[in-house]
Every structure is written in C-alpha cells, then in structure tokens.
Structure of Receptor-like serine/threonine-protein kinase:
Amino acid sequence: MDFLYFLIIAACILIPSLKVSTAVDTIDLSQSISDGMTLVSQGGKFVLGFFSPENSSKRYLGIWYENIPQTIVWVANGAINDSSGILTVNNTGNLVLRQHDRVVWYTTSGKQAQNPVAQLLDSGNLVVREERETNSESYLWQSFDYPSDTILPGMKLGWNLRTGREWRMTSWKSPSDPSPGDFYWGMLLYNYPEFYLMKGTEKFVRVGPWNGLHFSGIPDQMPNPIYTYNYISSKDEIYYTYSLKNDTVITRMVMNQTSSTYNRYVWVEDQQFWKVYKTGPKDNCDTYGICGPYGTCKITGSQLCECLEKFSPKSSQAWNSADWNQGCVRNKPLNCTDKLKDKFMKVEGVKVPDTTHTWVDETLGLEECRIKCLNNCSCMAYTNSDIRGAGSGCVMWFGDLIDIRTFDGIGQDLYVRMDASELGEQEGHKKEVIIIVSATIATIFGMLLIGCYRIYTTRLNKTDSTDIIECNENRGGSEDDLDLPLVDLSIIITATDNLSIKNKIGKGGFGPVYKGRLVSGQEIAVKKLSRTSRQGMREFKNEVKLIVKLQHRNLVKLIGCCVQEQDRMLVYEYMTNGSLDQLIFDNTKSKLLDWPTRFNIICGVARGLLYLHQDSRLRIIHRDLKASNVLLDNLLNPKISDFGIARIFGGDQTEGNTERVVGTYGYMAPEYAADGLFSVKSDVFSFGILLLEIISGKRNRGFYTANHCPNLVTHAWSLWKEGRAIEMVDSNIEGSYILSEVFRCIHVGLLCVQQHAEDRPAMPSVVLMLGSESELAEPKEPGFYVKNNQGKTTPFTGQTDTISTNEITITLLEAR
Ligand SMILES: *[C@@H]1O[C@H](CO)[C@@H](O)[C@H](O)[C@H]1NC(C)=O
Ligand SMILES: *[C@@H]1O[C@H](CO)[C@@H](O)[C@H](O)[C@H]1NC(C)=O
Ligand SMILES: *[C@@H]1O[C@H](CO)[C@@H](O)[C@H](O)[C@H]1NC(C)=O
Ligand SMILES: *[C@@H]1O[C@H](CO)[C@@H](O)[C@H](O)[C@H]1NC(C)=O
Ligand SMILES: *[C@@H]1O[C@H](CO)[C@@H](O)[C@H](O)[C@H]1NC(C)=O
Ligand SMILES: *[C@@H]1O[C@H](CO)[C@@H](O)[C@H](O)[C@H]1NC(C)=O
Ligand SMILES: *[C@@H]1O[C@H](CO)[C@@H](O)[C@H](O)[C@H]1NC(C)=O
C-alpha cells in the first residue's frame, strides 16, 4: 500500500503533467499543458488543448466542445509548427504559450497575482484567477474578453469603456488558418452607437443601432425558445449579449469569412449536426448603402431601391440601369431661411439611417426632439432612440441620410425634414395620402393608388396568433422542432368544432379547407392535406419551417402546422372576402370590383409573386396560381394562397422537370402541361391568364364566342391583332376604368402568356411594366396546351375543354 502511494507521488513529481491527463479543469504554477494533453471543464462540456485545422499541419491552442467533433470555439493567436507547444501560467498571472524557448503567445493582465491558476469553465471560458477567488469580476484574464470567430452564451459584443477594449467577433482567415481575418462584427462608438459587419475598413452590413427591442436592421429578431438577448449600456460598458433559456441547448454564433456571413447554429443531438438557426446578411438590401443617400432598399419592391417619397433619383439614367449609388435628391430643396417653417415627413417601417453623424438625448421625448431638430438647419431627421412602449429618447441625424431600408409591416418610424410646401396642412402625423389618378376613379375603402404604389398606413398586427406561438413554446419539443410553428390538434379541434362539415369552406386538390376561430378571436383557415403525399415527415416539417418565414402583404400568412400521425394540417390566416373567383366571375358580385380595385388586385398579386420568385432564401414557384388561389381581405386586398404547397406536399423542390404535375387546366403554361417543365416563367404564364380574366371577368376556359376561339387567351389575342383589344373589358367596369391603364394591363397580360417561356417577362419586369409608362414590346403569339393536343405529348390528351364552375387542381403522377 505504502509502496503504491510512493509510486503515485513519484509519478506526480517526475511527470507533473500526468496530473492533468485525466479530466482536470485547472492548472497552477507548477503545471503545464503540452501538445496531446487537455483540460476538460468540470461538467465535461468544453476541452482546451492543441489542434490542427483542416489541411494544416500547424498546431494551435484552442477550445472545443467535448462531445462535438471539430467545432473550435476559441483559438489563441499563435501557430506552432510541430508538437512541442507547451502552455503554462507564470507567477505574474499570465498564460504563456511556448515552443521550446520561443514565446508564441501570451496574455497580459493588469493585476498583480499571488497564486494564480488557469481554469476552463463549463461556459467555455478559459480564465486566470487567484486560486481562492471565484468572483468573475476579479478574473485576471479571461478568454471571453478575446473572442475569435465564435460568440458563446454569456460572451459580449461591444466595448469595455474602462479599458478601452472592444469585444469583437472576428472570422478566421480561412478554414485552415485561424488567425484573425478581416471580416468582423464590431460596434462603432458614435453618439448613437451601432453594430456593423466590417470587411477590413469597409462597412459591409450595418446591423444598426440598438433601439431598445432589437438592432434596427434586424426587426425580426424576436423572443424565441432558445435564448434571451440583452443590450447593456452604462458608463463602463456597452455591449450585446445572449444567454440560454435552457442549458441543455447548445448554440453558437459564428463569423465566416469564406461565405461572408454570420450564422447562428443550434446543435441537433439526435442527428449530430449543426443546424443553421439564423443567418445574415439576409438579402441584397443588407448591403451597406446600396441605395445611396435618401434611397431606401425594399426587398419586395419592383426594384431594390426606391427614393424616399418626394425625392427623385439624382441621375435617372444611372438609376434606371440599377446603379443606385448616387441616391436621390429632394424634389424641392430645403431653403431654411425660415427654418421653423420646415416640416417633417413620417417614413414608416424602416431601418434607421447610418448614425455616424448623430446626436442623442435619452431624456427628451418625440415632440421635444422634433423642436430640437427643427431649430438646427443641418438636422435632417429625428426619431425616438428607444422604441419600447410608446417610445422615448431623441436621436437626430445631421447630413445626408444613408443606408435606409424599408421592411414590410415591421421596422421603425423616421421623421425626415422637408420643405413645408411638400407636405400638406398636417405635419408629423400620418395621414392617408391621396393621389388623384383620375377624376373618374372612386376611392375604395379609403385606399388609393398611384400605379402600383400604395401608401400603407396599417401595420402588422403583432398580436396575431399569439396563443399559437405560446402553445408551441410550452411544448418544449425536440431541438429539431424549435422553430417549427406547431399548432396543437386540440386547438384546431376547438377552433373548427372538430373539423365539422359546417365549417368546411372549400376543397382543393390537396384536401379540404375548414374555417375556424381561435380562443383569441382570430379566424383561421385549416387545410387538411390529403394522405397521398409522398413526402416524409421530416421533409414536411422542413418545408413548413421555410414557408412560414415567407411574409409579404400579398401572401396569405401560414401560421403553422399540425401533425397527427398520418394527418397533416396547415393553418392559415382567414380571409374575410373569400377567393377572387367567387367575385370576379359572378356577374352581380363582380360589380363590387371596379377598375381601381381590380388594378390593385393585379398589382398586389404581381408583387406577391415577385416576392416568391426572388426572396433570397428560397425561390418558390407557385405552380398553381389561379383566381381561386387569390384571396381577398376585408379591404379587398389580394393575397396569394397555397404558395409553397407543392413543396410542402412533396413535389420537386426547385425549377426543373417534375413527374408530379400540379396545376389547373386553363392556367398551365404549355411547356408545363405537356412536359412537366416548370419555372418562374410558368408562373408568369398563369399570372397572365389571371390578369386577362380579371379584366374580362371571364374564365379562360369557359369561354366561347362566335369566332370560335377556344379560350379567353386566343380571343384576347385575335382582338389585339385587330386593334380591338378594349372590347374584351368587362362591361361592369366601363364607368371606372382609365383606358390607358386597362390597355397596358392587357398588353402585359399578353406578354405573359407568350408561347415560349423565354419570351415572357420575369416578374420584376412585370411589376415594373404595370407601374410605369415605358414602351412595351409587342407580344408574340400566345401559347396554350390545347393547341398542341395531337398525339400523346400531354397527359391531358382527350380532355375536353368544358366549362368548369368548380375548378379542380390536378395533382397526378404522370404515367410512365
Ligand atoms: C482540404 O484539402 C482538400 C484537398 O486538397 C480539399 O478538397 C478541401 O476543400 C480542403 N479543405 C479546406 C477546408 O480547405
Ligand atoms: C519550426 O520553427 C522553428 C522556429 O521558428 C524553426 O527553427 C524550425 O526549423 C521549424 N521546424 C519545422 C519542422 O519547420
Ligand atoms: C509572465 O509572462 C509574461 C508574458 O510573457 C511576461 O511579460 C512576464 O514577465 C512573465 N512573468 C514572470 C514572473 O516571468
Ligand atoms: C431543459 O431541457 C431538458 C431537455 O429538453 C428538459 O428535460 C428540462 O426540463 C429543461 N429544463 C428547464 C429548466 O426547462
Ligand atoms: C464557412 O462557410 C464555408 C462555406 O459555406 C463552410 O464550408 C465552412 O464550414 C464555414 N466555416 C465555419 C467556421 O462555419
Ligand atoms: C429661400 O426662400 C426665400 C424666401 O422664400 C427666398 O427669398 C430665397 O430666394 C430662397 N433662397 C433660395 C436659395 O432658394
Ligand atoms: C447644428 O448641429 C450641428 C451638429 O450637432 C452643430 O455643429 C451646429 O452648431 C448646430 N447649429 C446650430 C445653429 O445650433
């Protein structure tokens, strides 16, 4: 026994490092870590040791997850070319990394140490502290103060104002070189400080200032089931941080120079992979300053950049060729001889401009802020510095306003200085801005139009579907389902009276639809998918998660899904005015839809489709656009429904060739109907049909005339060639239309239904054409599949072209 004891002691003396070879989390002055040995945090979460990045023979000191391979969360900035590296803590309390006698890396601590130890904590923080000291405030040094490319829960991004040190997250140079790259997330200490992704000295993406709730440029940053976030601003420190709601979740945020992105990952234990939970930049509108001064970037716009209202492109030539850098100038320059006469225009739903030249006073309210701004001719805009509650604090901008972007339904308000003559009597407050297009145009429900551009005064009702989201959070769920908006079956059963037949409001090819009402009073539509889907549950959930994120005012909002054994249901917001086909093809009801309303519907559908086609994360081809898939809200605004359903249902994912043909007779592009070839251009075709239907009030397929045209398209085409296109217009809108507008719409419609997909315009051009007066190309002959109906080229051979009052969506497998 004694002998054994002696052996152990001897071993410890002779080979001091043996002590740390088993799970030890601390070293003291007498110990060291050499290559091949590790420190393991007490709970076994993190490991400190030496590693080599992929394709590199160099050795680095780093920290990684004990149970997750190859995920380095921190690295010391120093490379060693062999395995002779050794880490010690010396008696002034500094970590020293040596290769033989050469010091490769070391830390500096401002404090004097007596008996320092280095410890790896379960948070992933490597700290140097006095042996007896446990107060985190008194650490001599900690790796959390020196982030590399990863921010773990509890780390900070911002500034320590006492020491003048910045906490910034910096990418590796490359996957095989962990030394700091030039892509980083940092904070610029302007009066109104803001966060940027920088590429070297260039601003790459402006995340924006903290506005009390979130970064101004990330308004969709929302409370979530995984982590809480916080922004602290005091005289000593100013930083952003986040912490876990449940310590069992593993998440990290990483800067990546290779892809120029930052990603938040969540570890999915079951499947052993890092799932991307959030990513940025989101889209082109995040590109710094893309629209120049006084331009605003709008991802759902007809083009990315628009000028602020009452501003025009500085160079319209550059602007029209998508070169927006020069930005916009005022239609009426400011004169400021009598500055108190100036007014402010409220711009809603934006990311506030670059804050380089700002001034902040947190004690002032909005009205005081206005007066303060008014009194200084170089103050160009103001708003609340904190938007929580009713808003508080004052921030003012001096000089040109740059890098604004507009969000749909979210974002904050900005008040921009204008010459008084540019605004009407009222100031500051939002009013309905009315643009008289023509004396004959009536106003419908207070909505007015200029081209396709509407001025929106309503904001997204943020309380929508709260009960569902809470319900979902309470479920806990597996990590995989964390951002899947699951709706409990019990909620659906209560809301729809157990999917009772009296609540059934429709039936499409994918299954029946029921109306329901949540306890909160919100009305929903529940679509029960028929069981023939070939898609696995995981794919189904993944698709729902993607589709749920698509939000646009012209898309019906998918609230969530419900999965019950074999049954799958989708829950949507409910649209009070039903579907377009019920109104437009009914001779009496269609009187409700005068020309301005119809034009609004056309433009709205175009914008919704544009969003589906060019949203940066996900390109959705609708594949079944038709009048019955356009729903109308209480103000008769159009919203496209059933988008993404082909994906959800398990059709092919992107453009290409599909075995499963999904679509509706009469709306299908010839190449899609015949060969299953679908693309954004087949959607454009369907849009063109829809457009002609809206103008004529007639279905493309139930259309017969004396001249034996098989359908509306051929009829429109023959009238067009004879210069009599206007004859196809629905007599119900005779009193309300503007000839040039209707004519233009017919023209655009015919361009959309051209036989060859490559001739058809893409949706960005369609939206542009509808809203402008530019010259349009002459349409070529339209295509429609009936014409090619010889032989066996189409799966529809033999179908007769009869009037169908109840359109049926086709989902069939092509016989092979
Ligand atoms: C490592 O090298 C292989 C072979 O040259 C290459 O395919 C791979 O992309 C490299 N990995 C990294 C991270 O550079
Ligand atoms: C490693 O670096 C040291 C000093 O920088 C140098 O003397 C040595 O030759 C290098 N060894 C190898 C294998 O490159
Ligand atoms: C500890 O290491 C640091 C960094 O190499 C050095 O500046 C300091 O003098 C060392 N202290 C002692 C007592 O050797
Ligand atoms: C954290 O999550 C685990 C596993 O999902 C669960 O068992 C535990 O109860 C949760 N803890 C808290 C405090 O919610
Ligand atoms: C960075 O992005 C590249 C390319 O997308 C990827 O291969 C790499 O793993 C990423 N690096 C990190 C640290 O996530
Ligand atoms: C500014 O307005 C005043 C008064 O309306 C006018 O006399 C003056 O010419 C204007 N100055 C400029 C530069 O437009
Ligand atoms: C207006 O504000 C700017 C920027 O803060 C300041 O330099 C200037 O002196 C102010 N002018 C007046 C008249 O107060």
Q: What stands out?
A: The longest strand covers residues 177-188.
